[in-house]
Amino acid sequence: MNKKIAVVAAGGRVSRKVISEAVRRGFDVTAFGRKAENMTDAQHYVQKDILDLTAADLAGFDAVVDGFGAWTPETLPGYMTTTEHLCQILSGSPVRLLIVGGAGSLFTNKEHTTVLAEAPDFPDEFKPLAAAAAEVLKAMRQHDDVKWTYVSPAADFQADGERTGKYILGGEELTLNSRNESIISYADYAIAMVDEIEKGHHINQRISVVRA
Prior knowledge:
Distance between the termini: 30 Å
GO molecular function: oxidoreductase activity, acting on the CH-NH group of donors, NAD or NADP as acceptor
Number of helices: 5
Number of strands: 10
CATH class: Alpha Beta
Helix content: 25-40%
Strand order of the largest sheet: 3-2-1-4-5-6-10-8
CATH architecture: 3-Layer(aba) Sandwich
Protein name: Putative NAD-binding protein
Structural class: alpha/beta
Order of helices and strands: EHEEHEHEHEEEEHE
CATH superfamily: NAD(P)-binding Rossmann-like Domain
Organism: Megasphaera elsdenii DSM 20460
Radius of gyration: 16 Å
Strand content: 15-25%
Domain NAD(P)-binding: 10-195
CATH topology: Rossmann fold
Shape: globular
Pfam families: NAD_binding_10
Largest sheet: 8 strands, mixed
């Protein structure tokens, strides 16, 4: 049977890549977004804000992908409020929750005492976003009532990067490829996300991906 998935905040660029990848593989995809028109490849579309979603809206799906994104100081708190709302309505259900996470919280040492966002060359303009995404991960670690997976991209997350179809699956630590790079395109990230939905077993774990 084909997987039935929902993607919330479907209008975002990562969300659209995930939707396209899932549809390409024959998934039955329902997109939830704030705009009136469906701007995605999803077969079904519901105009609804994340905070207006109910348990009934998400019942019956195999997985829900949370593609919420924000940049400004006014909208960054939305990371936590939207994630907690999704956790509330998915609590105790068999529906998986996969979160488009950040790279700033990836550990840069084996002892797991320092993270990428603390590196001297980490751009100041990305620190508030990294902090907001890290807070979500911290909160998710407390949720044993939800089947969540937090998917961190590589440090260089490229919106218009090519779809190579190859990636390295990592865990809690910043992973570099054979060229000493931490880079992934949105398209390859989407492949990893859909792979995790399709056959992954990383329940209540953070995983990470980098271009092979």
